[in-house]
């Protein structure tokens, strides 16, 4: 009796070990039958060899990846029912339509990644996410609507990324650029592996749910452009992985948490346009990874010259405008060599501009108007050597002082990159000096609401890039 050769035995073993299971093959063909052009060309016997399909060693389909294939058609709720070992499903950037029904997920208990973004899917979301293994869900840029059920995250203990932006959801839980309203429902604290929570540009109101501070893997909380209120709890110090805290344009009040500085990974803090009060917590100066600190338009106060900014070596933007801060410009701020933008306007600061500001080689934006600074001429002599400076806003400061004259600015060759200069609203006296004619890159000039006298110089018309000049009330 002839015995099979080694090669034929190996092929038999290989075929047995890796061939697609018939039930999985049938499910895939059922799925394909609901789609229109272009065809998937799934014609070979072994579906493990089909384009977009990955199987495990036992022949179970584990991945169905068909992004950007021009697929059109509806998704049958039972078409993938037998793919019980599926871990990754990506049908993004196609033209699939219909609703996402609960039956679609009933047997997908091992699913880890679901990406159906950029399709034409509609309807309400199913009762809950498909499995406790789910980590990444992207349903963005479809036509889903209605509320996100409170049970939606019930099984999602391993969820790390959830994106449903660019839909038309309504309801209690919200995500970016929808029309959610009402309070944020509790439950996020149970998402123990959630890293990013974004819900910007909605109509949310109420308080931050207290259990959000239990989601200790959170790296980003972005809830700007809502109507949230209340204080930010000191329990935020539990979120030791937090890098982005973005809550601008809300109604948050109270003082900043004193232990905010325990968040050593913080990079971006944007709390503009709220109702925050009190002083900047000194602990914030321990956030050595901080890149942007923005607190524009609040009711904060305190002497900022007492704060030590010297450890914030990565800080590029500091915006404390429109508050009630006092003191002088902190000398320690000049140690922040990465600074590109400083906004201190509309506070109650005083003193003079120090030459140490020239150590900020990348400084392109400086707004210190509407304070009680003195010695405009001295400030201009220093600042004209800031070679990267594009915008200089001094309006409302140095009140009653004269315009720096041509004699004051002798051998003037500075401000070579300046685009915007504002010296308005300061009872400025004198005439428009000739040294301004050397600002060849100047585009916008504000000199209104002063006591400037004399003729409007003709050379203003020769500045090659100047397109806007304001001279009223002189």
Automatic annotation (TrEMBL):
GO terms for cellular component: plasma membrane. InterPro entries: Leu-rich_rpt, Leu-rich_rpt_typical-subtyp, LRR_dom_sf. SMART domains: LRR_TYP (SM00369). The keyword Transmembrane helix applies. Its main location: membrane. Transmembrane segments: none annotated. Keywords: Cell membrane, Glycoprotein, Leucine-rich repeat, Membrane, Receptor, Repeat, Signal, Transmembrane, Transmembrane helix. It is found in: Cell membrane; Membrane. It is a single-pass type I membrane protein. Belongs to the RLP family. This is Receptor-like protein 2. The lineage of its organism: Eukaryota, Viridiplantae, Streptophyta, Embryophyta, Tracheophyta.
């Amino acid at each position: 009796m002839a015995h099979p050769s080694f090669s034929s035995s190996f092929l038999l073993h290989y075929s047995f070990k890796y061939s697609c299971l018939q039930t999985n093959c049938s499910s895939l063909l059922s799925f394909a039958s609901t789609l229109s052009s272009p065809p998937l060309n799934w014609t070979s016997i072994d579906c493990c060899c089909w384009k977009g399909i990955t199987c495990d060693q036992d022949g179970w389909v584990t991945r169905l990846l068909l992004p950007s294939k021009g697929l059109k058609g509806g998704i049958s709720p039972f078409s993938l029912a037998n793919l019980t070992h599926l871990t990754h499903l990506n049908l993004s950037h196609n033209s699939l339509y219909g609703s996402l029904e609960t039956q679609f997920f009933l047997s997908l208990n091992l699913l880890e990644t679901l990406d159906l973004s950029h399709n034409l899917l509609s309807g309400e979301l199913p009762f809950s996410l498909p499995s406790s293994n789910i980590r990444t869900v992207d349903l963005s840029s479809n036509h889903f609507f209605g509320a996100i059920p409170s049970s939606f995250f019930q099984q999602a203990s391993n969820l790390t990324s959830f994106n449903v932006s660019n839909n038309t959801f309504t309801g209690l839980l919200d995500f970016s650029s929808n029309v959610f309203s009402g309070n944020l429902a509790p439950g996020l604290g149970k998402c123990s592996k959630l890293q990013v929570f974004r819900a910007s540009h909605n109509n949310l109101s109420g308080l931050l749910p207290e259990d959000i501070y239990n989601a200790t893997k959170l790296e980003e909380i972005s809830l700007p452009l809502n109507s949230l209120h209340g204080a930010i709890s000191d329990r935020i110090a539990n979120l030791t992985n937090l890098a982005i805290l973005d809550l601008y344009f809300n109604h948050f009040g109270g003082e900043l948490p004193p232990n905010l500085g325990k968040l050593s990974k913080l990079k971006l803090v944007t709390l503009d346009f709220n109702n925050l009060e009190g002083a900047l917590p000194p602990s914030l100066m321990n956030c050595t990874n901080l890149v942007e600190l923005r607190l524009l338009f609040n009711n904060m106060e305190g002497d900022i010259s007492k704060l030590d900014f010297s450890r914030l070596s990565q800080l590029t933007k500091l915006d404390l405008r429109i508050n009630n801060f006092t003191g002088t410009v902190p000398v320690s701020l000049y140690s922040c060599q990465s600074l590109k933008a400083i906004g201190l306007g509309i506070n109650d600061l005083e003193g003079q501009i120090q030459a140490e500001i020239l150590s900020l080689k990348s400084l392109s934006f400086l707004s210190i108007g509407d304070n009680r600074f003195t010695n405009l001429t001295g400030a201009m002599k220093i600042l004209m050597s800031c070679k990267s400076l594009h915008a200089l806003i001094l309006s409302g400061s140095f009140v009653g002082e004269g315009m720096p004259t041509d004699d004051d600015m002798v051998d003037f060759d500075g401000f070579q990159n300046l685009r915007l200069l504002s010296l308005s609203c300061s009872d400025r006296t004198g005439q428009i000096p000739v040294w301004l004619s050397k600002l060849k890159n100047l585009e916008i000039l504000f000199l209104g609401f002063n006591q400037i006298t004399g003729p409007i110089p003709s050379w203003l018309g020769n500045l090659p890039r100047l397109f806007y000049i304001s001279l009223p009330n002189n």
